[in-house]
Design goal:
With about 525 residues, the chain is of the alpha/beta class. It has 3 domains: about 150 residues, 60s Ribosomal Protein L30, Chain: A; about 140 residues, Response regulator (Rossmann fold, 3-Layer(aba) Sandwich), CATH 3.40.50; about 210 residues, Rossmann fold (3-Layer(aba) Sandwich). Helices cover about 30% and strands about 25% of the residues. The strands form 5 sheets. Strands 17-18-16-15-21-22-23 form a 7-stranded parallel sheet, with helices on both faces.
Length: about 525
């Protein structure tokens, strides 16, 4: 029997036997069934109805999702007088964040009131409480398996693994500078989330310390006497694979940096070149975030370190699928997104709409990546230039340490590159790019915008993507299971910001034919 995972802000209608799974927190899922025609449906909505400036057509809302789901059932042959319902979810998992009366209660009340008004009988319900729920609908007989989640208010509704480590992360720091070892140890120790369990001055000391301490994460300097950090990383990944963050005093704009990523390094941390309080505060927050994320990716390190991503062989046919109504593509992400982006840009046809990329981990190594990718792509790869109009067939990248955004000038949409403070600990920030499109483009123009969020640490891009979807743009989120760092994708899915959830290999092939519901 086929299986389908239902993400927040979607519904599923089927007249063939299949299993539909979803995970609920404060959200509600309404299952519907016409036993005479064997047509079943399930939705997953986050809020009862739109408020303020929210897009009324979004399936995040029960007031939109339920009527459309019933309409789809009737189109497949269901009879309105035969439809039955079961209702699940609405847990009080958000009551502790100061949002007032429970969102779950509002969702429950809406579902029950709507079904009553439609004269649809409710055969069963599992509602409220303090725990999330996993439900599995069998569309052939309307049976539903119901399972309460563990005692955890952080319910992951994305269907991926909720991967953030909860224990104190144990770190070994390898750097030939005593000052750097002292600064890093102080910054990490003060966080309360990270413990430096060992330090080493060079690769030879590091080998002994790592074996003895068996840390969760290694912070490894790129440039060291005797044996470079990259050469040591190669040996480390062969014999003792462990999440590793490379550290550099300069912008790592050479082949050594990319080689470290290819060998399995997860991220880069740049040593601060000044020590004013604001710089050190940002450095501390960013470093701790990267270390915790790296520890959480430990179960993926072995496969990703040796993985060779292959471009799908059908890429040459993608140009036939371009829809002229799509006039702009925006791509965001940060840590771990470079591999996914490489696959994506290599599968784009030469006549693709303009693509704007704001990925901080790529911008920091931009000259190297552009040189590496340019001969493998049918599109042109360029650094975004302030004031220029983005053109078709070209992928524009945010420059290092500058935010990329859109602005309306004399009736034309142009790119803006500006220095500024980090947003969500990222510069460039894809939230800045996404939200600029919301502010600059009309509702009609946004219907021709597609936005993608790839692997990412933290929440950068989540709110911008949600706003884009609310305003009518199409949104794609990288599947958590295909992302090195699944934090941003999981957060976007759970917020209902995803029209579709895809692997990087699938993104180009479905870019122009998205939908937020599935019908069999």
């Amino acid at each position: 029997m086929k299986s389908h995972y239902l993400f927040p802000g979607q519904f599923f209608v089927s007249r063939e036997p299949c299993l539909v799974t979803t995970i609920l927190g404060s959200c509600v899922a309404v299952a519907l069934f016409d036993p005479s025609r064997r047509i079943a449906a399930l939705n997953h909505y986050l809020l009862p109805r739109p408020s303020g400036m929210a897009q009324e057509g979004s399936l995040r809302y029960g007031s939109v999702s339920l009527p459309l789901m019933i309409e789809e059932m009737l189109a497949l042959g269901a009879r309105s007088e035969s439809i039955q319902a079961k209702v699940y979810g609405g847990a009080r998992v958000l009551d502790n964040v100061g949002l007032g009366e429970s969102i779950g209660k509002h969702n429950i009340d809406f579902a029950l009131d709507y079904l009553k008004a439609q004269k649809i009988p409710v055969l069963a319900n599992e509602l409220a409480g303090h725990l999330g729920r996993k439900i599995v609908l069998n569309t052939s007989d309307f049976s539903i398996k119901h399972e309460l989640m563990s005692q955890n208010n952080r319910v992951d509704t994305s269907g991926g693994r909720c991967s953030l480590v909860t224990h104190s992360v144990r770190v070994v720091l390898v750097d030939d500078s005593a000052a750097v070892r002292s600064i890093f140890s102080n910054v990490l120790g003060k966080s309360g989330r990270v413990e430096v369990v060992g330090v080493a001055r060079d690769a030879f000391e590091a080998r002994e310390v790592i074996v003895e301490k068996n840390p969760d994460v290694v912070l490894l300097d790129i440039e060291m006497p005797g044996m470079s950090g990259v050469k040591f990383l190669e040996k480390l990944m062969q014999h003792f694979p462990i999440p590793t963050i490379m550290v550099s005093s300069l912008n790592p704009e050479d082949d050594a940096a990319v080689r470290a990523l290819e060998l399995g390094a997860l991220e880069f941390a740049q040593k601060p070149d000044q020590f004013d309080p604001n710089t050190l505060r940002f450095f501390a927050e960013s470093l701790v975030q990267k270390v915790v994320a790296a520890a959480s990716a430990a179960n993926r390190i072995k496969t990703r370190a040796k993985q060779n991503r292959i471009v799908p062989p059908t890429a040459a046919n993608y140009s036939q699928q371009i829809n002229e109504s799509i006039h702009l593509v925006m791509v965001g992400g940060n840590g771990g997104a470079y591999q996914d982006l490489e696959v994506f840009v290599q599968t784009l046809p030469s006549d693709t709409p303009p693509v704007l990329v704001s990925i901080s981990s790529v911008s920091g190594l931009l000259p190297v990546f552009l040189e590496k990718w340019k001969n493998k792509c049918r599109v042109q790869l360029k650094v975004a230039v302030d004031g220029l109009v983005p053109l078709p067939g070209t992928v524009y990248f945010a420059p290092p340490q500058k935010h990329l955004s859109l602005e309306l000038v004399a009736g034309q949409t142009v790119m803006r590159t500006r220095s500024g403070v980090p947003v969500c600990l990222q510069i460039p920030s894809c939230d800045v790019l996404f939200q600029s499109a919301v502010n600059v483009l009309s509702a009609e123009q946004l219907k021709g915008v597609v936005s993608l969020l790839m692997s990412g640490i933290g929440s950068d891009g989540v709110q911008g993507l949600l706003q884009l979807r609310e305003k009518g743009a199409r949104t794609i989120v990288a599947h958590p299971e295909s992302s090195l760092f699944a934090f941003a994708p999981q957060a976007a899915i759970s917020a209902g910001a995803a029209d579709d959830v895809l692997s990087p290999e699938e993104m180009s092939s479905v870019l122009m034919r998205l939908r937020s519901k599935a019908v069999i």
